[in-house]
Each structure stands twice: as C-alpha cells, then as structure tokens.
Design goal:
The chain is α/β, with parallel strands linked by helices and about 475 residues long. It has two domains: about 5-250 and about 465-475, Rossmann fold (3-Layer(aba) Sandwich), CATH 3.40.50; about 275-460, Glycogen Phosphorylase B (Rossmann fold). The protein has helices spanning about 5, 25-40, 95-100, 115-135, 150-155, 205-210, 220-225, 230, 235-240, 275-285, 310-320, 335-345, 360-365, 385-390, 400-405, 430-445, 445-460, 465-475, and strands at about 10-15, 45-50, 60-70, 75-85, 90-95, 140, 160-165, 175, 195-200, 200-205, 215, 245-250, 295-305, 325-330, 350-355, 370-375, 395, 405-410, 420-425. The chain has a nine-stranded mixed beta sheet with strand order 3-4-5-2-1-6-7-11-12, with helices on both faces. Strands 15-14-13-16-17-19-18 form a seven-stranded parallel beta sheet, with helices on both faces. A hairpin with a 2-residue loop joins strand 4 and strand 5 (about 90-95). The longest helix has 18 residues, at about 115-135. The two termini are about 25 Å apart. The structure holds adenosine-5'-diphosphate.
Length: about 475
C-alpha cells in the first residue's frame, strides 16, 4: 500500500442512487460528483445497491468474492458484494435479491414498493457490515434510504466510524407501518419519540437525524426553512431539537459532466452565445419548433407537486400565446401528463416529452434561453445551476436552494461570482406570469440579456467550494 493511502482517512459514501448507474433525481448527481471531489483527500468508496437495471458489463462490475448473510426477523438474506472503478472512484455494490430484483428503484410511477422498509433495511445492515469489515473513519449517509445506519452503529456498540447524514429532500422520510419495526433488525426500544417513532409509525429519516454526529441539508436557506412547519413535513420540532448539529451546504454540479465546452451529448460544444445558437437551431428542428429569434423556454424535471407543475400548467396557455417556444421534458406522476399534452396539442409552439432522457436534457439546456423552475419548495435544485452554465437564464420561485443560488438580475453586479436570474416571491400563477413577462421584455433588450447570460456562464458552480465545507465538517466530527 502506498504511503499516501496509509495516511489518508477513509470515507464510505452511501447512497441509494448514483449517476450513471441509477438515477431518479439530484441525489444521484450529488452522489456521483461529491465523492469525486473528495477522493483525493480521503480513501473513498461509494456504496449503492446493485439494482437489476444496472448494466454490469458496461461498467465492468465484478464480484468482490465477499458474501454474508443478514438475519432480520429470523429470516436470512444473502448479500453479495460487487465492485468497479469508474472515473477514478471506487464503487461497492450491494446485491441482495429482495433489494435489487425490481424494475424500478423505489416503486412504480403510481406507488412505492410495499416492502421498501425491509429492502432498505437490508441495504443499511449491509453498509454496517462494510463498516465492521473495514474501520472507516467517516460514513456519509444520504436521505432515508441509508438513514438507519447511525442508529445501527449505536446498536452495534463496537463501531467507531463517525457519521454525517445529509437530507436531500425532507418530503421523503421513509415512513412505514408500525409492524415493519420487527422486520428491520432494530431493537424495539428505539421506537420512541426521540428516535424512530413518528405518529405511531416507523420513520427512517428520524434515525439519521437523531443518531448521526452531524446533519446537513443541501442549501443554507433550506436548513433554515426546515425548522418551520411550512417546510418540515412534520419534523420541525424534532429538527429544532437537533439544530445545533444541523447546517446547510449548497450542492454543486459536476462540471465535467455538465460542461458546454466539453459536452459530447450536444450538437456543438460552446463557450459563447454564437456557438450556442447552433444548438438551438438543431434542437428547434428536432422538436419541430419554428423561430430561432423567439425565446425558448424550457422545463426539465420530475412531475410532482414539489416542482410546481400545477403552476406551470396554469400559465402554459398564456405563455404559449406570446412570441416564444416552450419545451417540457419530464416524467413522474401520470396525472400531469394529460393536461400538458392537451395544451401542447393546441399550440404549435409547445413541445412536450413525457420521459426521462439524460442526453435530451443536455440538448435542451444547450438550446434554451430560459429555464422554468416554479418549485413550491426546493432543497437545492441542480437544474438552475446547469442552466446558468449552459447560458439559459433561470426563472425561479425564490425558495430553498434556488434563493441561495440565483441572484435577482435587477441587482446585477459584474464583480459577483454568483449567477443571476428572474425570481418571483409568491408561488401563484400571477407572480409566475409577471416573471415570464419580465423575461420576454428582457429578451427584447438583447444586450442586457446577453450580459447576464455571459456572466452566468463564467460562474463557478462546481463542487470545489462545497467539498471544502464537507471536509471541514468531517474533520470536526
Ligand atoms: P430532484 O428534486 O429531482 O432531485 P434536482 O434539481 O436536484 O431535482 O436534480 C434533477 C436532475 O435530474 C438534474 O440533473 C436534471 O437535469 C435531471 N432531470 C430531471 N428530470 C429529467 C428528465 N425527465 N430527463 C432528463 N433529466 C432529468
């Protein structure tokens, strides 16, 4: 072993999804990019489930010839470890049939799988087994799917690993029926209001908050918001109780993967607006939209109420009646599909794709003039940062991480290192429409628009600053 490696502290980064292996949202992007920013400092491994959808051959994922049996509620579950190295980072995959052999990660588009408590309990216990096999200095847990680990470490009593738990979205807490308590390998004494109990049910996320050495969320503003009833989804009191160990660190984006000057997924790599126009032209053709001079508005995101899809639907016809083009790329709740489709059929300047498609999202970022993010709440949000670096001005509800990462264009300061966009304060159709009117006006005064967009493209949205903050936090644990 090299001297360097001997001196490095070790980090196990645990997530239920990691790009490019498995992704449903921003957590996968963070779990891909943050460990890359940390692996020079720490001997880092990233652990995730080996879902059936992961292509083992494509990523040269091989068996680590390390298997063990977990016994939960007197039932044995076989676990086998797999591994690979990808873009300089080491990955450990946990394979257990019940956890992995599914079409989706967490559930069908209409509901979560009924045995998710057990599935992710297996994931958490397998992580703890890794911590027993190798004494990691730090384990970084993310969201409810790995939130039991700090509790299980306490239960095991002989593991010294320090833990950091990151909340990416408090709206998903992993809440299950009381009966699940007996399936998840947790001592029933933990079923109390200071730990797992939540209105008579079992809440995985509470275990992470209660027992991790430190808790972070993905933006400073969201860290404040989640101490209030409007954003805490019932955990405001519990989080306030633990607020001394809670802080917010803004996510970054992976500037290797989301980089217009290197992006292989787009028509023409670019670092100026003339080159960007080549992408817009190609994409308009692809989407059968007309009018290169008209502003192109884009929405990319999960179809859930969180993302403000209802607001988007409310303003869509009004916006479509203006001189502009609109593209919507999203998947998720089917109830949103029909109304958007119906409106899109009436307007030739709307193009709608109900799907998840990573390369297509890159082509849209590279072509759009404005990105729409009317989220009702947004822990951090990555789209607005991706959009800014691809020269699309974000129009955002001033909430959560959007407020931290997008500055009001009216207060533009060329010296600032931060990105600019259009913010609206109240999440209703009126305010959103006003913001859209402002956008149309801004686009007419092309000079001002161009200054803002060029400024944004030069801003640093990478992980480098935030990774430093995480390192500082690990060292303080
Ligand atoms: P979330 O709440 O979904 O985690 P984020 O803004 O943190 O939201 O991250 C969303 C990520 O998923 C971004 O990389 C965005 O480009 C991508 N994304 C969302 N929906 C789609 C889609 N339908 N097709 C392709 N990429 C998508």
């Amino acid at each position: 072993m090299s001297k360097e490696l001997v001196n490095k502290k070790s980090l196990l980064f645990c997530a239920s999804e990691v790009y490019p292996f498995a992704k449903t949202g921003g957590l996968a992007d963070v779990a891909h990019a943050l460990p890359r920013a940390l692996c020079e400092t720490y001997d880092t491994q990233v652990v995730l489930p080996l879902y059936a959808s992961i292509d083992k051959d494509k990523y040269s994922i091989v068996s680590l010839k390390n298997s063990f049996t977990l016994t939960l509620n007197a039932t044995p579950y076989e676990v086998e470890l797999y591994g690979c190295k990808h873009e300089g980072v080491e990955y450990v995959f946990i394979y257990s049939a019940l956890l992995c052999e599914r079409e989706y990660l967490y559930g069908t588009p209409t509901q979560g799988y009924g045995d998710n408590a057990l599935r992710f309990a297996i994931f958490n216990h397998a992580i703890v087994e890794l911590l027993k096999q190798k004494e990691y200095d730090f384990a970084h847990l993310n969201d409810w799917q790995s939130a039991l680990v700090p509790l299980l470490i306490q239960q095991a009593k002989n593991i010294q690993t320090k833990t950091l738990f990151t909340i990416h979205n408090l709206a998903y807490q992993g809440v299950f029926a009381y009966e699940e308590l007996f399936n998840i390998g947790v001592n029933s004494s933990y079923f109390n209001i200071d730990a797992l109990e939540f209105y008579g049910k079992v809440n995985f996320m509470k275990a992470g908050i209660a027992y991790a050495d430190a808790v972070t969320t993905v933006s400073p503003n969201y860290a404040k918001e989640i101490l209030t009833p409007a954003f805490a989804c019932g955990l405001e009191g519990f989080l306030s109780h633990h607020k001394n160990k809670l802080s917010g660190i803004l996510n970054g984006i992976d500037t290797e993967h989301f980089n217009p000057s290197k992006d292989k997924l787009i028509e023409q790599t670019f670092s100026n607006l003339t080159q960007k126009l080549v992408n817009k032209k190609a994409y308009l053709k692809e989407a059968k939209l007309r009018g290169i001079k008209k502003p192109l508005f884009a929405f990319i995101g999960r179809f859930t109420d969180q993302k403000g899809v209802d607001l988007l639907i409310e303003v869509l016809e009004d916006l479509a009646s203006q001189e502009c083009n609109i593209v919507i790329l999203g998947d998720g709740e089917e109830r949103y599909q029909t109304p958007i489709k119906e409106i899109a059929q009436k307007h030739t300047n709307i193009h709608f794709e109900f799907k998840y498609n990573e390369p297509l999202s890159h082509r849209i970022y590279a072509s759009a003039d404005f990105l729409l993010m009317p989220s009702l709440f947004e822990p951090c949000g990555l789209n607005q940062m991706i959009a800014m670096s691809y020269g699309a001005l974000p129009i955002v509800h001033s909430v959560g991480g959007l407020k931290d990462s997008v500055q009001n264009y009216k207060r533009f300061n060329a010296e600032s290192q931060k990105g600019y966009g259009i913010l609206f304060k109240t999440p209703n159709a009126d305010s959103f429409l006003k913001a859209l009117q402002e956008a149309l006006k801004l686009y007419e005064s092309k000079k001002e628009y161009n200054i803002l967009v060029k400024h944004n493209m030069l801003c640093d949205f990478s992980w480098s600053k935030s990774a430093q903050l995480y390192k500082k936090l690990y060292e303080e644990l």
